[in-house]
């Protein structure tokens, strides 16, 4: 790409004197000088659709503060230029987290401009497309596994619950944990995908109702060695109350609710750990080490299954499906594709 116009999906809100109307999504052409502040220009070959992106695409004020805006918290491609010498033109790189797709225009664009410290060289053995099959979802799943290991929840400790198991983070967590030898109990509200989860390595699949306990009992039967919770709400409290002594639950989502209504008994009587997972501000040294794991020994054989590819134009149909919980697996975005 030269200095020609750059195609991207732009979200905007029309302002009136009394209110802000609903956001609109349009694929537009912009000039390079509109890309914003940064030292590295990257031609984006792949991005992805995450739940946070879907919120940004509808103008959610908790995700996007300023409009117009280009969503996309993930991006992978090649360096076009770097003004501080940190990267060489032609290098394959990826960007996830930091402020990409939130305060800073993101990966739903043929080109991005970002600070050099946000950029990670693509690890050996990982293609640009592979990097976005993982994306923030896979990076988050890996952090969850690390949290379990850090708290001595190992394959021999017992069953590990993964909630929202057909989603981006959940499906990758199932595959990653199974690959590392854990016995995984996949929780899903999509029974038609149960066999897919078993093929991913889950030892068994249960419904949300099988995990959920909405009573006020402070403790439930101790069934789980730990868990990866991608949804929050009552499912998370049920999981915490049913975790064995010394267990750990890694929490990384809140689509089912942001409130945690429970007693301290599971923490004080069973000594369990609730480990919050934050991907955007993960320190760079840890970030690079995690990507090396994802490119190497932690990469499951079937990690490329349940992946859909879309263009920028097709995102207008995919965003509402994501918000309605109708998606499964990973949605890759190809900004270079023209419909």
Structure characterization notes:
- The protein has 339 residues and is an alpha/beta fold.
- The chain has 9 helices and 15 strands.
- Strands 3, 4, 5, 6, 7, 14 and 15 form a 7-stranded mixed beta sheet that branches.
- Strand 14 (307-311), helix 9 (315-323) and strand 15 form a beta-alpha-beta unit.
- Helix 2 (128-150) crosses helix 3.
- The chain is globular.
- The model is unreliable at 16-20 (pLDDT under 50).
List keywords for this structure.
339 residues; alpha/beta; seven-stranded mixed beta sheet; six-stranded parallel beta sheet; 9 helices; 15 strands
- Taken from the alpha-carbon principal axes, the silhouette is globular
Strand residue percentage: 25-35%
Q: Which sequence of SSEs, written as H and E, runs from N to C?
A: EEEHEEEEHEHEHEHEHEHEHEHE
- Share of helix, binned: 25-40%
- Which structural class fits the helix and strand makeup? alpha/beta
Kindly report the average pLDDT value: 94
Distance between the termini: 19 Å
Rg, Å, rounded: 20 Å
Largest sheet: 7 strands, mixed
Please count the helical segments. Answer: 9
Would you count the extended β strands for me?
15
- Low-pLDDT ranges: 16-20
Briefly summarize what is shown:
The protein is α/β, with parallel strands linked by helices. Helix content is 26%, strand content 28%.
